[in-house]
């Protein structure tokens, strides 16, 4: 079952590795501390949104119902914010497709 807190439930090493790109990015694109804080806050809000069981229709944004497929199947819907890369590389799956795939196996 999905929970709002699944996004924060990770191993400490994984959490550091997740934050590393944001830190490295600052060396190439310097920005004000408050801007960085705002971006990290928005990312946290998005993490809660994508794990919160909210079935919102925000196409092309990746929503909780699609992200749940990622946690169930572990081979689809890798995108963090949008469907674009999953669509381009063939890893996009609709939430209802899990039932159809189970019937065909």
TrEMBL record:
Keywords: Membrane, Transmembrane, Transmembrane helix
GO biological process, one term: lipid biosynthetic process
Keyword Membrane: yes
Annotated Fatty acid hydroxylase domain residues: 5-91
Main location: membrane
One GO molecular-function entry: iron ion binding
Signal peptide range: none
Assigned protein family: Belongs to the sterol desaturase family.
Name the record gives this protein: Fatty acid hydroxylase domain-containing protein
Taxon lineage: Eukaryota, Viridiplantae, Streptophyta, Embryophyta, Tracheophyta
